[in-house]
Amino acid sequence: MRWYHILLLAVLQIAGLLVFCLGFFPSKVVLKGFGEFDNGNYDPQFNKIVFMVVDALRSDFIFSEDSSMLYVQSLLREGSALGFTAYSNPPTVTLPRLKGITTGSTPNFLDAVLNVVEEDSSSTLANQDSWITQLKKADKRIHMYGDDTWIKLFPSVFDEVDGTGSFFVSDFTEVDNNVTRHLDHELSEQSWDCLILHYLGLDHIGHKGGPKSIFMSPKQREMDSIVEKIHSKLDDDTLMVLLGDHGMNDIGNHGGSSAGETSAGLVFISNKLRKLNSNAKVPLPKNEDFKFLTKVQQIDLVPTISNLLRLPIPRNNLGIMIKEFLPLWSADQQLNLMKENLKNYENLKGEVTNLEDINMIYDFLINSQSGLTQSATNYLTDKMLCGIVMLIFSSLFVLLYLYNTVQLYSIWFYSLNILYGITMFGSSFVEEEYQIWWWFATFFIVFLCYGRPSNLLYILFLIRLVRGWNNTGQKYIGDTIFQYLQEHPFINWLLVFLTISVYGFSLNNGAFSLFSPLLSFLISFLLSITCFTFKLLFSLANGDEIPKELVGLAAFTMESLGVDNAQDSLIDLARMFYYMVLAVLVLRLGLKFKSYDYWFFTDLHNLLSFVLIFQTSLQNIPLFLVFLGIKHQVGLVSGNSMGLKKSNRISFVSLFCLILQHLSFFSLGQSNSLATVDLSNAYNGISGYNILAVGVLTFISNFSTPIFWSFGSLSILFENKEKLAPIKYEVLKTRWLVSTSFYTIGTTFTLIACYALRYHLFIWTVFSPKLLYTLAWNLLMNGLVEILCLLLTILH
Ligand SMILES: *[C@@H]1O[C@H](CO)[C@@H](O)[C@H](O)[C@H]1NC(C)=O
């Protein structure tokens, strides 16, 4: 195979995948034009509205007995407020949710990705109907303060506006103070008809510290006092709505479809609602399903707001007027306004029913709703098929090539790739992918260590530790090492200290010590201590408990940096660390050219490990210690067992590291759901708006362990003392073969599964995120990281 064959194959593979995605994530069909009244023969209940979004306000944050929102609860008890648990459609990310909350339709999946990327113009609602545009058409004045996603969605709609950036999830206070500081003025003048507030602090606390963070309760109290402040200033003709755009899961992230993420709180507040005599018995005991009071669809608030303010219902709305509010109107008027909702559905379905009875209208709407939310997507099947054909071609190409280079281990490639591919067709398999890799790893090790029982037991034990670090599937929820470390900070810090020291010692033992022992010691010591203190101050700034033995070190560091709280020291420390890494890297490459070839990959790998540890959450750091054990053992076993031929040895190590890349990815707590994308380390050392740097850091922190094993295989292969030059190209070729065959064949199966199951119930919750992860693995791990490895090997 020639180099241009390889290039062609890579291009074919990436292009096929991208073409498929264009067909799979098309922009959504929406009906053009704006909703109008059929006759609109009913009275408005309110003429103004305050719409207060608290990002990630999960239902239990308002209604449960752990909630600190006592004022809202007192309103619910006395009947001045009506509360609901609102089901928010996945993907549970702010941008698609805001679209749902304003237009009443279900989102386009790609919105979720664009929300993370933050820069897009394709997602405005300028030409789509929503209750905001309806207000504007009725010449109402709208003021908006908070998350600037609103401004992106509705450019030039707001009469007064001050957006806050959602970019820095580490900011808990400024994002909210920038909203609150406008309140006094806005509440005394009341020169608006609609006031939109979007508070981000609570979501940021979730991303950083989870729902049980020590900052959560004070933040809820703050939000509660804001509700009190607003409510006390409003007259009876103004409606206030308090809601979360989505919820959060147990670790404070969101994006997926678990109960916590989809259960948002929703409260309508006005003294006028006392007429409805609904006196909720809050606070309620906590429950697993996050179901409190009545459950509604979040988009139901769209026709409800339209009717309460007497506005035409938005054209693409799929929400249903919330029944509890109907008694505010007389029986005739109730029928009239429900007919508006009915007409809106008839337009979407293209059928006329002429129903004249409220209960029958409700039956019709409820029966139609789920069907309409499902069918609102249209795929471009020719693009999808085109992508699949391109990938099938590249798969055949790879399979033929594998067939021609018959090796003992080709059989492993075939079975691994095909087995993995087949599992893509089961939604449970996709959710439980962790288990699949655990079985692959176990079988492979048993095979590898044939005849070496002590190594076998040792590696199996270590792999079992890796497996037990986190749970990511839906089915096996049990105790994990991660939780244990969370509950025992002392042991956690001890292990972190040990891990960082061990990597420090290894670096100290590398080529630097041949060059100058003093320099070597300084480099290793400074890197270790900076990494460790950063982690310490990071925890302190997050309000986590740290062992008292370390308090002195933290205080000393802050004093030396001349700052008085931990938060202020983080950016300086992180930059110091990264500059040091850069300097050491340059130095090591320099030594290389003075022909210190020895330990080249090991040194680079140790240095890289520091970066990966730096970007990993505290409880996961000791994983890297376990990895070191596994790496050492694999080096031993593959080096001298079974009289392995050299080329077989290379295949073995490459394949094993590929398996470990995937296993360890899930052991970090990652999964095939957007909800596990971890942002807590994405801002280390960043102070300005720098999307590239945040992107790189997000990638490194979410893929830290796969990156470790990707470089790890090079370090294992080149560590032993045989002459390197002859095996260099052999290593390159085999590595390429292993990863290309896996990614090509795996991706082909994934695409076929997504195509075949495109009308499956779980297509948006399970298969689409999986496709995005496939894209990330292909472009970033098999693309970017492999290319880096390739360049380094050539350099060697
Ligand atoms: C808060 O407002 C100030 C002054 O307008 C601005 O400089 C700052 O960037 C704002 N903060 C955020 C998070 O938007």
From TrEMBL:
Major localization listed first in the record, in broad terms: endoplasmic reticulum
Record's subcellular location: Endoplasmic reticulum membrane
Superkingdom per UniProt: Eukaryota
Keywords for the protein's UniProt record, in alphabetical order: Coiled coil, Endoplasmic reticulum, Glycoprotein, GPI-anchor biosynthesis, Membrane, Transferase, Transmembrane, Transmembrane helix
Protein name: GPI ethanolamine phosphate transferase 2
Parts of the chain that traverse the membrane: 384-404, 411-430, 436-461, 490-506, 518-538, 576-595, 607-630, 650-669, 689-716, 736-759, 771-795
PANTHER family: GPI ETHANOLAMINE PHOSPHATE TRANSFERASE 2 (PTHR23072:SF0), PHOSPHATIDYLINOSITOL GLYCAN-RELATED (PTHR23072)
Pathway: Glycolipid biosynthesis; glycosylphosphatidylinositol-anchor biosynthesis
Cited function: Ethanolamine phosphate transferase involved in glycosylphosphatidylinositol-anchor biosynthesis. Transfers ethanolamine phosphate to the GPI second mannose.
GO cellular component, one term: endoplasmic reticulum membrane
GO biological process: GPI anchor biosynthetic process
One Pfam entry name: PIGO_PIGG
Coiled-coil stretches noted in the UniProt entry, renumbered to this chain: 328-358
UniProt organism field: Wickerhamomyces ciferrii (strain ATCC 14091 / BCRC 22168 / CBS 111 / JCM 3599 / NBRC 0793 / NRRL Y-1031 F-60-10) (Yeast)
CDD domains: GPI_EPT_2
Protein family according to the UniProt entry: Belongs to the PIGG/PIGN/PIGO family. PIGG subfamily.
The keyword ATP-binding is assigned to this record: no
